Amino acid sequence: MKRLAVFFTALLFGAAAAAAPLKPSHNAVASAQPFATRAGMQVLQEGGNAFDAAVAVSAALAVVEPYSSGLGGGGFWLLHVAKPDRNIFIDGREYAPAAATPTMYQDKQGNVIPGASLNGPLSAAIPGEPAALVYLNRKYGRLSLAQDLAPAIRLAREGFPLDPLFHSMIATRVNKLKRWPAAAAVFLPHGRVPPTGYLLKQPDLARTLELLAKQGDAGFYQGRLAKEMVDAVRANGGIWSLADLRDYRVKARQPLVGEYHGMKIISAPPSSSGGIVLIEALNILSGYDLADDSGLMQKHLIIEAMRYAYRDRADYLGDPDFVKMPIARLLSPYYAAGLRVSILPDQATPSRDLAPVTAMAPESRHTTHISILDKEGNRVAATFTVNFRFGSGFMPPHTGVILNDEMDDFVSKPGVPNGFGLVGNAANAIAPHKRPLSSMTPTFLETRHGLAILGTPGGSRIISMVLLGALDYFNGGDAKSIVSIPRYHMQYLPDVVFYEPGAFTPDEITGLVKMGYTLRQVHPYGNMQAITWDYKTGKVTAASDPRDIGTAEVR
Ligand code: DON
């Protein structure tokens, strides 16, 4: 085993030795909302680095896209520090309150109470984003926290015109928001969904951001704001305590590193499942030369790789501080070779022939990703969230902060699917101060010729989207192509391949059905943000998913 690990490590770090790159000619920012992209560009122009920009963009998204992410949520910030050449993963994932128990969302008969882990303060885990932003600024930024947060504070205080997407997000969540007066006061002024173009001001959120700017962690996790949040949560059926907030810490973790035909993959370790599933799938595919295969065969092999890797997600993964996971085995090329043996060239593998259980849920827009590169070569790929659209819907009065419903990413009961249709086992059971298993997959790709920074929202489909993006980059795609290519997805159970219009040719559809696949066409999904940098030409390309309203700037 040890020999295997040594060999594996050598393989990984020996791979993809990139030609020493010059510095990029431009800064680049891609995010899901134009005001947020602009906030990032602004702090870069003020002398900030990629990490300052990441704080500015993340905080601005908390204001202009609060249905996706915010101070009441959490996420992952994958960093590349150019000098000294280092990759770091900041785990700012929420954790469960200390009073949480494995059966807290079940009734006396042991049935899962529908919606209990999705709505209201009982569904909220302790937020990680404020701590992550402070950590990112203090440890890696060049500007003050107040400078990084300034654009967000201004957007919250002075307001911004509601875009059509934000309008529709509110319209689809009226019932959720209406239940909580503070949230309704902000998002349903005069009891109505505000029209597109409405100047949305969030003075409470501006004050909360200012408190964070002035006092750092203490401004959010202690003192007046903490007390206001805990009082409001407890008065409305939640179980937070002051100690839960006070004791929250981000975790700096080693990113996972993998390799695909010489391309290096740097991605999210647990408490995300993203990096493991991504690298396991690529390891399976490493045994093939996809370029020599027909389109049909390529798709077949990629779908099978997804199936096997997602199966292991359900079986093994959870918070690394709580569960032992066979990570070395899952990422070993020998393990992938073993899985490859059972993939037949002309036939789909029925998922029921494999072990445990996941199911599928519709994707919708909530969660966000940002990609940033600065002229010094520093990089950020970050994916963060309040989980479902507007999270728990609950806003503690006077805070302006929507709390997440990330508790739903735990397993409420073995075998019972969560909001994304995912099931799991004890590895992802609820426990005090444990982090729920995520699928968010912020990723860097490095080849001898250049690099890519990418990630997307999309629940369980995040990982398959990043996998397709990685393969596209390997095949010569730039940022625009990575975010645009049609997508397809298989997650072991249900035994169905979901695909966007245009993902398969008519012949491929016929061929896949003949192999035994069940196909289901779905609406376009995902909201990927990508940056590529070509070492040879020096060209930096940034792109925001054409399926949505985000923007990318190179300057
Ligand atoms: O951490 C996770 O995997 C989920 N909470 C992410 C949710 C998500 O991507 C929703 N996006 N459409």
Structure description:
It is a single chain. It contains 19 helices and 18 strands. With 555 residues, the chain is α+β, with helices and mostly antiparallel strands. It has two domains: 2-24 and 37-252 and 376-415, no CATH class; 261-362 and 440-554, Glutamine Phosphoribosylpyrophosphate, subunit 1, domain 1 (4-Layer Sandwich). The protein has a seven-stranded antiparallel beta sheet, with helices on one face. A six-stranded antiparallel beta sheet has the order 7-8-11-12-16-17, sandwiched between helices. It has a three-stranded mixed beta sheet with strand order 13-14-15. Helix 2 (34-45) packs antiparallel against helix 5 (145-158) and helix 13 (274-286) packs across helix 14 (295-316). The longest helix has 22 residues, at 295-316. The chain is globular. 6-diazenyl-5-OXO-L-norleucine (DON) is lined by residues 363-367, 385, 387, 406, 409, 438-440, 457-459, 462.
Short summary of the structure?
This protein has 555 residues and is of the alpha+beta class. The protein has helices spanning 2-14, 34-45, 50-64, 129-140, 145-158, 164-171, 174-178, 181-187, 203-215, 217-221, 223-235, 242-247, 274-286, 295-316, 327-330, 333-341, 461-474, 479-484, 506-515, and strands spanning 28-31, 74-81, 86-92, 160-161, 199-200, 251-253, 256-260, 263-267, 368-373, 379-385, 443-446, 450-454, 488-489, 497-499, 519-521, 529-534, 540-544, 551-554. The protein is globular and about 60 Å long.
